[in-house]
Amino acid sequence: MKMVKFLPLMIIFLLTTFITSGCWNYREINEMSIIAGAAVDYDIENDLFVLTAELIYPSASEREIRVLSEIVTDTGKNFFDAVRTMIRRSGVKLFWGHVKILVISENIANDEKRLLSVIDFLYRDAEIRNDINLIIAKDKNPREILETDIKVENITSFYLKDAFENEESISKYHAVPLWKFVDNLNSKGISPTLPAVTTIKQKDKIIGQILGSGVFKGGKMVGYIDGDETKSYMFIIGELKGGVLVVDKYIEDDFSRVTLEIIRNKTNVTPIYSDDKLIMNIEIEVSVIISEIQGQTNFMDEKYTKSLEDKAQKQLKNEVDSLIKKVQKDFQADIFGFGAIIESEMPNLWNEVKYNWPEYFKELETQTNVIINIKGSSLRSKPIKVGE
Amino acid sequence: MFRIFKDKMLGKNSSTNQNYKLSKSIDKNIALFKEIFKEDETIIYRNFESKSKDSIKFCIIFDKNLSKMSSINDYVIKPITRKEFPNDMSAKKRIELLMSKILITCDNKLSSNTNDLISHILYGDSILLIDGVDQAIQICTKEWHQRAIDEPQAERAIRGPKEGFIESIDVNYTLIRRKIRSPNLKFIFKEVGDKTKTRICICYIDSLASEKVLKELYKRLDEIDIDGVLESGYIEELIKDSPLSPFKTIGNTERPDTVCAKILEGRIALIVDGTPNVLTLPYIFLEYFQVSEDYYTNFFYSSVNRALKYLGFFISTSIPAIYVALTTFHQEMIPTPLLLSISASREGVPFPTIVEALFMLLSFEILREGGIRLPSTVGSAISFVGAVILGEAAVSARFVSAPIVIIVALTGISNFLLPKMLGALILIRIIFLILSAFLGLYGYIFGVIGLFIHLFSMRSFGYPYMLNIDLLDDEEIKDTVIRAPWWLMHFRTRLIGSKNKERQKDYTISRRE
């Protein structure tokens, strides 16, 4: 009996495999368009979302495979509408599973409703990954960002993605994946930032350049901080993993510009409550090595090392303090997550201040301690002496 | 259902074997045998008489090709014709005299069962008929040509004995006996097959093998009612557990050292005359992954080889299915550069991925089956045509994409890590592939679950088929995924060796410490 039932079952199995090859979710790879990155803009006159996508298609010749890209644009009443209408430009269904970046225009970032409409779709849709990088197109139409002439890699989106992955050796911008942006947006005690990208003209080529961050407050963007400020920002939030510090130092009228490479950084932010006053205590401990000396002073000499460390500490402290002051004064957006730290360390206090946190944050006092340890000087112990 | 069908077809086809009776007259007896071996020119009837005046008539009957004529001449005919038999001797005395003083062959037996006698003639023995006696003497004169003991082609070992079983049960028996010189090693001979009367030999160590398994084996062997057994595969299929499963529940090997190792673990071997493949039972899933060489080479090396075999099992069953699932359902799981290169190679290929995969797997199986039975010179041409021409041409003609050729080649090579599992692997691979073409990884996982339910539900002669796979006991893991050094393997396999667990005494380890 077993055999009698088994055979027809097997035949049905085999037949349906061939007949229903087009069933749900069955897609052949070469029958869809893979999107590498997208840009969204808002057309205020016609009240439409303008979606630009960078489609990638491999072209296989006899021996080699080349990946080419193509920019297509279409519009829709909202983001998803634009996503679907775009099919008429590409012909086949678009595959959003490999999207690396999404460029958002300033006029979307500046408007809470529009921004949420985009973010909501990205976060809700099953195909789009939660770790795509969001970018603000600073002073530019986001489409221009995707249309830059990239030489290294043909695909702009991949180039931007790679740049974000190597941020730790630059530290002048800070990549924010979608999930983190949404988390910070949801949270009361921390305001999100997004990296900003713009285009610059170099000779006759237009290339993209990521620099600085856009600061968000509530559901919209309120301003920018530049690249060096972003570095200070990363120091405070403890995300800095590399990068360089450039210190100018006079030793007995001998000017030296020393570049310190950051190899390790540890930041500790603790709230201190005393005398009815809340002070955020920021402890930054950086390990660096000397990686370039412009001058003749041997900074591995103990007394000079100490003075260089002092100078660098003072400089970094100033940078950090001035960033905090600027953010408090200009944006009142708690991008450092002080609120979240207070919430976890002093929940009772947080319950008192959370309703007017932005005002409280504006007046919040901070106290910065920077410790810089010079651990070494790469392969050379002495600078190059120029013979008389 | 099948039984009713079978009975109807066969009707009342009872055995045609009649029991002939020998008479006291030699002429009648000769006529009887001539009647039985009608039109058979290979049977020789040699009549001769003893030396005395009123001589006694003798007749020796044998097959001229199966028997050694010179020994018949020298040890049977010559002594009898030179001997005088007293006239007044009774029949009984005559036989006694013959057996004890005249016939100088080593294995003589008196018998009156004609069926027995006939089968002995056909097995190379001679039958001596004596006038006035209603019995006959079987004389051992077997001699025929057999293959020399050779290294088994399918189970070669770089380190280890290079001898393999041959087609003769007597030689095979000696190969085992020579390795285990213990009176506890028992050999029980039986015959199966109405027509072929194939001799089989059950071989075990009675202080190790379980009586329950032996009893069950005897029961199953007694139930066999088949006209002929030409290879141990007949018996394997007739007595195995889970007869519909593609997996073996009875092992087979051509290597005497493997058989001996299994006997020493408490298993039972079954030698079948006419084939070099000896059955061993019970057989568990793990034995697919064990080869005799594992136990001869360094245990690190053996453990690596074991791990490779497990990997080979995974690759061979799953890689095509996972490839199809990923490329047609879960494109987001493929890294972007890989996705692009797969996408590029699929550009212009007209068939869906599943059709490609099935087509390539099918052509691989055709090549395998085509090449396996050809002489090695032609076989290599086949594999060359298959690998180079078919693969390369199909890709450059855009019939199939390049990744699927890689996948199928990898699958095919991994196949040969587990040569004994080949049939099961093909079936599992195709089922997994179809399931994942249906439902993606979801379907593949269904297949895996189904496979494991099947494997875990199987038994081999009462022992769980997945013995020792489901636990990570520090004692039992020693001969599973890894092969522990010999000085650590104190115990025989769980359950199978439970009658006498201790393989070696502890002193080896204490001496080391």
Give an overview in words.
The complex is a heterodimer of chains A (388) and B (513). Chain A is built from 13 helices and 13 strands. In chain A, the strands form 2 sheets. In chain A, strands 1, 2, 3, 4, 5, 6, 7, 8 and 9 form a 9-stranded mixed beta sheet that branches. In chain A, strands 10-11-12-13 form a 4-stranded mixed beta sheet, with helices on both faces. In chain A, helix 9 (227-237) crosses helix 10 (302-331) and helix 11 (338-345) crosses helix 12. Helix content of chain A is 34%, strand content 35%. Chain A folds into 2 domains: 28-225; 227-379, GMP Synthetase, Chain A, domain 3. With 388 residues, chain A is α/β, with parallel strands linked by helices. With 513 residues, chain B is of the alpha+beta class. Chain B has 4 domains: 26-139, no CATH class; 169-283, no CATH class; 299-464, no CATH class; 476-512, no CATH class. Chain B is built from 17 helices and 12 strands. Chain B has a 5-stranded antiparallel beta sheet, sandwiched between helices. In chain B, strands 6-7-9-10-8 form a 5-stranded antiparallel beta sheet, sandwiched between helices. In chain B, helix 12 (353-372) packs antiparallel against helix 13 (376-396) and helix 15 (422-439) packs antiparallel against helix 16 (441-457). Residues 12-16 of chain B have low confidence and may be disordered. Classes of the chains: A alpha/beta (388), B alpha+beta (513).
